[in-house]
Amino acid sequence: MSKVLAFNREQRRYSPRNDADSRDPAEKPIARPARSERHERHGAKVTQLFPRGDGSTTAAVQIVATIVVPTKGRPQMLNRCIASLVLQRFDPRRYEIVIVDDGPDEGTQDVVTGWAEHTAGSGPAITYLPSPGPHGPAAARNFGWRAARGEIIAFTDDDTIARADWLQHGVDAFHDGVDAVWGRIVMPLNGTPTDYELDAKNLEAAEFVTANCFVRKRTMEATGGFDERFRFAWREDSDLYFNLLAGKARIVHAADAVMTHPIRPAHWGVSLSQVKKVQFDALLFKKHPAMYREKIRRRARWDFYATVAALLLAIAGALSESAEIGVPAALVWLLLTGRFCLARLRRTSKRPSHVAEMIVTSALIPPLAVFWRAVGSYKFKVALL
Question: Max Cα separation, the chain?
């Protein structure tokens, strides 16, 4: 028989019902609960996983905060995330968890319904919302907060782990007319990082990210929420932040509201698949040109444009059999590419496979970045260099 987890709120921890099995919670199968209550909300099927009106005291207490978690096809990570959210040192009757499934699948729903069964009567209300579209993290978060009952919306991602006092510190920061709060992100690293890991760790220094932020629901309504044109997990949080700043919202930092964001394993050459996100820089720049230059990028990546120009001249020289053009251009391209590669290797792993990855991707990233930035400029009708 597979083991299930028992929720023990008195001890604030999980205890296995079968002591013979001590696997990690993320690996455990979670059974679908027998009880559920189906109803319609915003035109989509919703599963209310902590029924009310059945003698529980949940309905008698006002929901203060709603935690919104968008997810798509990552049930094990979501399982780990929910485990941290249901163990918050916060009155479980006064907060709820809304999981928005942006790629509805049975595995994700099983995780959510399983947690609802284990915490029924002792934990917070848990709601599963399959997103009807449009899709993307911005749209999923909009769908979630609009369905929320709490006056404070807490946003995080499905691959995070909340510290037990995260929600309490976030909610406590709402005083003296505060409209929004951003907490602290911790991204642990073991050993010398790869370029991907070092780049990901920059999230720790970001001012306002949806992996750890809180906004009043009325403030979300006033700003219109997230711009759903941001189809990837890229710049949609910056856009919300800039909208809040432009609207003179009062935003504070709660350093004690800590969210751990483990860096996910990545495949070889992962940076190449991430470059396409830069097209949405154009949308952010179009909406907030001054703030983009102040907080995102003060100047254009002229080194990338110079690298691409040298590459094109080298190709043109080769095709026209003009050594006077081709050779100098090729040398400039090699110099700029080598400089870019060495900069990425300066503080990162020197393992042979990683060095090879840096050499290959450093040659490809500049032209890809210029291409996707041009795509974004065309798509959103703005000139962004």
Answer: 86
Residue 327, pLDDT above cutoff 70: yes
Class for the domain spanning 5-266: alpha beta
What's the CA angle centered on 50, arms 254 and 45, to 5 degrees?
95
Residue 48 to residue 30: CA distance in whole angstroms:
17
Closest CA to 99 of 138, 134, 72: 72
Which amino acid does the sequence have at 238? Answer: S
The answer to whether residues 109 and 75 touch, using CB atoms and an 8 Å cutoff, is no
What pTM did the predictor assign?
0.83
Crossing angle for the helix pair 106-119 and 75-85, nearest 10 degrees?
A: 20
Angstrom distance (rounded) from CA 116 to CA 98: 11
Question: Which structure tokens are listed for 362?
Answer: 């450093």
Cα dihedral 291/296/301/304 (nearest 10)? -140
Place of tokens 């699948």: 105
Q: Which residues pair with 98 in a beta bridge?
A: 68, 127
Structure tokens at 326: 């081709």
CA–CA dist 255, 252 (Å, integer): 10
- Assess contact for 68 and 162: CB atoms under 8 A: no
CA atoms within 13 Å, Cβ hemisphere of 385: 8
Give the residue carrying structure tokens 């043109």: 316
Mean pLDDT (whole number) for 179-206: 96
How confident is residue 210, by pLDDT bands cut at 50, 70 and 90? very high
Domains in the chain: boundaries: 5-266, 296-379
CA distances from 8 to 5, 83, 86, 122 (A): 9, 12, 11, 8
